[in-house]
Design brief:
heterodimer, A: 247 residues, alpha/beta, TIM Barrel, 43% helix, 15% strand, B: TIM Barrel, 8-stranded parallel sheet
Chain lengths: 247, 246
């Protein structure tokens, strides 16, 4: 079973986006059985309606989709209430934080209540990782270290630094924090997937395309063409996220 | 035919960066790559690194070609080393990674070695990513000062500066964009549409960035067969055979 754990759905103010139909077509073409839909930041800035939209889209094709909720921690209690609504009422399965587009450092104290709430609700927190100043692997590690019982999915393994300057920090983040999972989209150095499979095991690696920001076809091949065993490829391609979300 | 215009060979024992030549050759075979331009990562003393690259190129002839990874702060010594690498050792070009030596690409010492490369008839391959001293618009400052030197923008702007890289290549006819490591097939297509297929070149940045996937990335760009041939080998051959008069 192949699951794309990171597929944006909606029309973002940042200029990217995809419809449910486009995602389904893409998944069909790549033999991806299921996609985790991630809300985008809309023109109106309000993430609540996007969470509702994701839930409705999932409901229409629950055989192919599941979804995460997105909030802006700067909105404090209002965002906590939205998180509660999105998980308990709408039925979304995890929390997505994008400190790059919402502009905050992932290890700022404003994020703490959301990590605590995610722990109490037993849902993972996906962090858009690797962005300078806001979601560097050392910052994600700092957050994860303070909330060891909350599962954190770091997209791009927390490092999209083409100079390789974040590789060491990403390794430290993943090796020292067992609650951090590495999502594979856009990652610098394809052999980082091979290296981390050896170091932390495929059970903490998750395939995500990050599409349409990244190319889903190429992103899937990062996993299928990696120099690792077939069992490990299957684990990364779908089993890890399946287990994490009880799909 | 495929020529990979940017790869690394350097022993860094007990490290994730360890890149013995045998590892690269195996990955080239997997990807159907005929020849790769190899260079050191930096860090090692420059002269010793050039000698090592020379030895490896000879040992694996004709699969590999050499690029001399140098530090412009060494002034005339670096330029002499470049001349020796090109004229005596048969290297194909100069590699500059300004993060390693912290010098703006338009600094007089950088310009001096770029001019020397132009006089020798070889290109200068720059690391061009998201870090200071390697940003496309910073490299443009140098490109304008050395119009006779071909400057290759390796990684064509990394993750966040690809639009700038294309704009720089549009402005500067001596700039070539190179595809390695940056993760967007669509941007390769955009670059070809903007500046033509004769100034975009395939590379992997292997062995870390795996050649078989980097080749696939170019194939996903939706280029014609002729355009792919330009990227995969014709442009490299054009750059490097002119000098040798082949």
């Amino acid at each position: 079973m192949t699951v794309d754990a990171h597929a944006y759905c909606g029309k973002s103010i940042m200029g990217y986006g995809a419809t449910a139909e486009e995602i389904l077509k893409r998944c069909d073409g790549l033999s991806i059985e299921k996609a985790v839909l991630i809300p985008v930041k809309p023109r109106g800035y309000h993430l609540g309606p996007e969470n509702t939209f994701i839930a409705e889209t999932v409901k229409a094709r629950s055989d192919r989709f599941t979804g995460f909720a997105r909030v802006d921690p700067r909105l404090g209690d209002e965002a906590l209430a939205e998180m509660e609504r999105a998980i308990t009422v709408l039925g979304l399965r995890g929390l997505y934080l994008n400190p790059w587009e919402e502009t905050y450092r992932i290890n700022e104290s404003i994020v703490d209540p959301f990590m605590e709430k995610a722990r109490s609700m037993n849902i993972p927190v996906m962090v858009k990782g690797g962005h300078p100043v806001v979601s560097e692997p050392s910052q994600i590690a700092d957050l994860a270290r303070r909330f060891p019982e909350t599962k954190v999915i770091a997209t791009s393994g927390g490092q999209i630094n083409i100079c390789g300057g974040a590789l060491q920090d990403a390794m430290i983040m993943l090796e020292e924090n067992k609650n951090v999972y590495m999502e594979t989209s856009g990652i610098y150095r394809e052999d980082f997937i091979e290296e981390m499979t050896k170091r932390i095991g495929a059970g903490r690696l998750i395939f995500g395309s990050g599409s349409p920001l990244f190319d889903a076809d190429l992103e899937l091949q990062r996993v299928t063409m990696a120099h690792i065993g077939e069992v490990e490829k299957k684990q990364i391609a779908g089993l890890t996220i399946k287990n994490l979300l009880s799909l | 035919m495929i020529i990979d215009s940017h790869t690394h060979v350097q022993r860094v024992p007990e490290s994730f960066w360890d890149s013995p030549p045998e590892r690269l050759i195996a990955l080239m075979d997997e990807a159907g790559v005929d020849k790769s331009a190899i260079m050191s990562y930096g860090g090692a003393p420059r002269e010793a690194a050039v000698d090592y690259i020379h030895e490896v190129v000879k040992k694996f002839h004709p699969r590999l070609a050499g690029y001399a990874n140098l530090d412009p702060r060494e002034g005339e010594k670096a330029i002499e080393l470049l001349r020796s690498a090109i004229n005596d050792m048969g290297f194909d070009g100069l590699k500059l990674h300004p993060v390693a030596y912290e010098l703006h690409p338009s600094h007089p010492q950088s310009i001096a070695i770029l001019k020397a490369a132009g006089e020798l008839g070889v290109p200068a391959l720059f690391h061009c990513g998201d870090e200071d001293y390697t940003l496309p618009l910073q490299l443009a400052c140098a490109a304008r000062l050395v119009p006779e030197t071909i400057m290759i923008l390796g990684h064509m702007g990394g993750y966040f500066h690809v639009e700038d890289a294309i704009a720089v290549a549009r402005e500067c006819p001596n700039v070539i964009l190179e595809t390695s490591a940056m993760p967007y097939p669509a941007v390769i297509r955009k670059a070809v549409m903007a500046i033509g297929s004769k100034r975009v070149m395939y590379a992997s940045d292997g062995p870390g960035c795996v050649p078989v996937l980097e080749v696939e990335k170019v194939r996903l760009a939706g280029l014609s067969e002729e355009e792919q041939h330009d990227l995969f080998f014709r442009n490299y051959m054009r750059l490097h055979t002119t000098r040798k008069g082949i």
